[in-house]
Design brief:
Radius of gyration: 32 Å
Strand content: 15-25%
Low-confidence stretches: none
Shape: rod-shaped
Mean pLDDT: 91
Helix content: 40-55%
Number of strands: 13
C-alpha cells in the first residue's frame, strides 16, 4: 500500500504544475517534494510527470490516468475528516434521553429548553420508563444517556455523577390530620393505608431495604407506577404517600398535602446520569451534560 502522503504530494504538484509552488503549499522543501514524486513513481512502476521548461506536466500513460481518481479520493478523505471534526466541535444530530416521567418533568425539562435555545439544530428523543427499563435501553444502544434513580449497581454502564438529591418523605391530606402535630414513629405508619411505588422501581427497592433494616415490612394498600399518580391519590385522601419532597413541594406549599414528621427519617437518595460503557461522547451530548455540572 502506497503512503497516502505521497498521493497528496502528487496531487499538489499536478495542481500547481511546479515543484517549487507545491513545496510552498505543502510547507516542505523542494527536494522533499521531488523525492516524494520519485518514490511514488518507483512504487507504481510508471512515470507520473514530464519535466519540461514550463514545469511539471502529467504524463499521458501515468499521471493523467490516476489524477482524477486521486483527487476524488483526497476529497472524500477530507470530507470524512471534516465530519469527525464537526462531531467534536458542533452540536448537531439527535440526543436520545431515557428517564422516568418524574425526572423528565422535575429535573430535565428546563435543561432541554435551555439547551435548545443555544443549540436549536439538535433534536431530542425522549424515552420514558423506569430506571431499570431505561438502563436496559442504554445497554441496547437505544439511548445515548439515561437519568436514573440511585442507588444502582450495574458494571455495564458508566455512572457520571449525581445531578440532584431526593428526600423521600411521607405526605397526606387533612384526612390524616391526627399525624400533623408530633413526630411519628415510622412503625406507626403501618396502621394507615400506604401509597408506594411499584416493587420493580429503584425508589421502592431503596425504601424497602431501609424499612427492612429497621425490622419492618411495609405492605402498601396501593402501588403506583409514577409519582404524579401517587400525589394525586394522596391529595384525594386515598392514603399516605411516600414521595420525594422535591416532587411534591408545590402541594406542600399550597396546603393540599402536609409532611408527616417521622422518626427515624428516610435516607436521602439521588438522581444520576449513566452513559454507555466505552463509547465516545459526541460534542452535542457533552454540551448537554455540562448543564448538569
Amino acid at each position: 500500500m502506497v503512503n497516502l502522503e505521497l498521493y497528496r504530494v502528487f496531487y499538489t504538484v499536478a495542481k500547481c504544475g511546479s515543484l517549487t509552488k507545491a513545496a510552498e503549499e505543502l510547507f516542505i522543501s523542494q527536494p522533499a517534494v521531488s523525492q516524494a514524486i520519485k518514490q511514488l513513481e518507483n512504487q507504481l512502476g510508471t512515470t507520473l510527470f514530464n519535466r519540461t521548461h514550463k514545469g511539471m506536466e502529467l504524463s499521458v500513460q501515468g499521471g493523467k490516468l490516476i489524477y482524477k481518481t486521486v483527487e476524488e479520493a483526497l476529497i472524500l478523505l477530507e470530507n470524512a475528516e471534516n465530519t469527525l471534526i464537526e462531531l467534536k466541535t458542533t452540536a448537531t444530530g439527535t440526543i436520545r434521553i431515557g428517564a422516568t416521567d418524574s425526572i423528565f418533568s422535575n429535573l430535565i425539562a428546563d435543561k432541554i429548553v435551555e439547551y435548545n435555545e443555544k443549540y436549536p439544530a439538535v433534536k431530542f428523543d425522549l424515552i420514558t420508563g423506569t430506571t431499570l427499563d431505561t438502563v436496559a435501553q442504554l445497554k441496547d444502544n437505544k439511548c445515548d444517556i439515561v437519568f436514573i434513580n440511585l442507588p444502582i449497581d450495574d458494571k455495564d454502564v458508566t455512572l457520571s455523577g449525581s445531578i440532584s438529591l431526593l428526600s423521600d418523605i411521607f405526605v397526606a391530606n387533612d384526612k390524616f390530620s391526627e399525624l400533623k402535630a408530633d413526630v411519628v414513629p415510622i412503625k406507626k405508619l403501618q396502621e394507615f393505608p400506604l401509597l408506594m411505588m411499584e416493587k420493580n422501581t429503584v425508589a421502592r427497592q431503596a425504601i424497602d431495604t431501609y424499612i427492612n433494616s429497621l425490622g419492618m415490612n411495609f405492605i402498601p394498600d396501593i402501588e403506583v407506577a409514577n409519582w404524579d399518580l401517587m400525589i394525586k391519590l394522596a391529595v384525594k385522601g386515598m392514603g399516605i404517600g411516600c414521595v420525594p419532597r422535591e416532587y411534591c413541594q408545590s402541594y406542600l406549599d399550597s396546603g393540599e398535602l402536609f409532611e408527616i414528621k417521622i422518626s427515624p427519617t428516610l435516607p436521602v437518595r439521588g438522581v444520576g446520569m449513566a452513559l454507555p460503557k466505552n463509547v465516545p461522547v459526541p460534542f452535542a451530548l457533552r454540551e448537554f451534560i455540562k448543564l448538569f455540572q
